Amino acid sequence: MKAAAWFFVLFLGILSSTAHAFPLQAADTRNDGGQSITLSWTAPPKPPEQWIVYRAEPGRAFAPIDTIGGDLAGYQDKAEGTHQVQDGTPYQYRLVPLPDDAALRSDVSPAATPSASFFDTAKLNVFIVITIFLVLVLYYIRQSERGKVWSFRSIAGLTAIEEAIGRSTEMGKGVLYIPGVQDIDDIQTIASMIILGNVARMTAKYETPLMVPTPSPAVYTVADEVVKGAYSDVGRIDAYRADQVRYITTEQFAYVAAVNGMMLRDRPAANLLLGAFFAESLLLAETGHEIGAIQIAGTANVHQLPFFVVACDYTLIGEEYYAASAYLSKDAKLLGSLKASDTVKILLIVTIVAGVLLLTFGQPTLAEFFATQ
Prior knowledge:
45% of the residues lie in helices and 18% in strands. By secondary structure, it is of the alpha/beta class.
């Protein structure tokens, strides 16, 4: 009888010592690059002021790795500091209250092994939009190659390029083409080279002098080949001169000073400022305005557009500048990409309107799907 009572008391003691123990869940962190474990738990009714996070790996005892607030219900063990987790190694965790209380210690978590996620499901919306865009690009490029002619809105600045070159021809003066101040690896400079090819074909056709000052050796090399190829395309390779394209300097304001000097000495009838521009934009545009040249500017640098708008006759704003390369070259790949871009914009506008309407009527599914993660 005494033995039975003793076992009953011992059983009650075990129950009381674990009455407040709680399960601790550990799992590989989703949608990450690996080396991270996420812990989650339901905090006891009266949590301590702080928790000490203990971690163990195969063959080693539990060791403290961090101290966190007692009101938390989750923790992420990342590859930071001296206690980094490694992909492919299983880890177990336990929470110990501070100050220590055996009744508030958590259970030992199941083993969790960190690994890199192959696909980030939080970016599924981005994947869908990109996939739609790529399908449309390939479709419209294929259609363009088959002879389909797309109609685009007329851009006054592009129409004025031929007019400006014609004016220069009538006045017996040249055309100054400024491709911006960035190197050839900049997307705006690449677009400028495509436009330069079309401008060079016009100047070769009209026998108009063309000057192209460049800000870097790489831009000089590409621009020289573009101009030479354009003169060859219209059968005027004999009119090409080696000094039409010149390398000036990579120094921003030294380049501007040299170009302004060319304007004041040669007084071209047309200035084409197409590329990436920064603080030098107004210096160039003011000098061109001073000599009375017709000026057509274009850049994707929004912070420089006001200076071009007030000092130039025509300005290609933002995406109009990128559209110019496709508009002038009539290249099937560029036209197809432009058409796909416009189509995706229309689809996104329709999606935004639909999302707003659904959200107004209490249906947040579409808005939440396209929310940034």
